[in-house]
Amino acid sequence: MDLGPYRLHRRVLVASLVGTAVEFYDFYIYGTAAALVFGPLFFPSESESAQLMLSFMSFGLAFFARPVGAVVFGHFGDRIGRKSTLVASLMLMGCSTLLIAFLPTYAMAGWVAPLLLCTLRFGQGFGLGGEWGGAALLAVENAPPGWRGRFGMAPQLGAPVGFIAANGLFLLLGLWLSDAEFAAWGWRIPFLVSAVLVGLGLWVRLKIHETPAFAEALKREPPVGVPFGAVLRDHGVALLAGTFAVVACFAIFYLATSFALAHGTTALGYAKEQFLLIQLGAILFMATGIVFAGYWSDAASAQRVLSWGCAATVGIGFLFGPSLASGSWIVVGLGLSASLFVMGLVYGPLGVWLPALFPVRVRYTGASVAFNVGGILGGAGAPIAAQWLSESGGTNFVGLYLGIAGLLSLLGLLLVRSRAATA
């Protein structure tokens, strides 16, 4: 196996992976805290279900901040460069996450507590809006010929790395602390630890250079005045296609993680440590799916891999609900593993497929906006819709959300089938 390109560009690949690892770590520690403790701590209500719903609504708030961040950071990423923009987005994202560790609860500050929580959650999402697109471009625009799929999977592997770090830390805290200690102060520790990961990400990113593709584009012509306007005017179909194409991966991830954790520890009665351990095993299948998809994309095309992955998402929709309702931890684990492997197939190729839809001069903006608007459609409402569907008709109905997400993503792929066939 030829590993030469990996060695030559290892600093760039690490920089792209670390950023998305921090992104998913930040998002998942919030999602886990929202599922376990944020309801009673920040959103007191008459029923436990209402608390959980409000907690998940605060979780979804960041998804609506992400497209705004994508436009702002994409603007500077396409005008002044990928490196500087990625450093700024990581700092905003990291500071917002760290400050959550110091928030007062509702019992301490009343309505100010949820207001501050939602403000910082918006800041998280705003910073994250510029993170994924820049990390993907950092990898793909440095890739040698024939390696774009394998380089594009580097930022995608940050997702399971961040998940394992977050989930593993929550698991250790669950083993060390009582439920009362965790609810009183233990939940703050993961947000404090994020400072270490952000520091590592900044240290790596400050040592990299601008991507060759962007540097070459600047030599040929000046940057676009308003990249977002150019994307809307000249690349509307690509933007719409990219938005739909990412819906499936967001839907699978947040149903198999945040919703499954909340459902498993409430309706199914699992101890949170046991369910976190099940999810830690399942996430390894997601990493396997990403690596498989990266190599497959270079051997065939990212378009083909995504098409198979989206079709599999529809199929997983029929299995997800019954497996979660089974009550058997083996069946639940197999269902989550299969779901997250399929997520690897639809998430892994996006790092190369989405950027290929847009020219270099507006690529940061186009890829970032499509990815983050798709996140609203697929991820923001996923835990909320799943909670409502589960209460209305059981978890069998939750699979409908996955099936619809897979069909929407297939529609997006069809819109640019000829353009992206070799991507």
TrEMBL record:
The chain crosses the membrane at residues 12-38, 50-74, 86-109, 121-140, 161-178, 184-204, 237-256, 276-296, 305-324, 330-354, 366-386, 398-416. Pfam families: Sugar_tr. Coiled coil: none annotated. GO terms for cellular component: plasma membrane. The keyword Magnesium does not apply. PROSITE patterns: MFS (PS50850). The keyword Acyltransferase does not apply. One of its GO terms (molecular function) is transmembrane transporter activity. It is a multi-pass membrane protein. Residues 12-421 form the Major facilitator superfamily (MFS) profile domain. It is found in: Cell membrane. It comes from the Bacteria. InterPro entries: MFS_dom (IPR020846), MFS_sugar_transport-like (IPR005828), MFS_trans_sf (IPR036259). Keywords: Cell membrane, Membrane, Transmembrane, Transmembrane helix, Transport. This is Predicted arabinose efflux permease, MFS family.
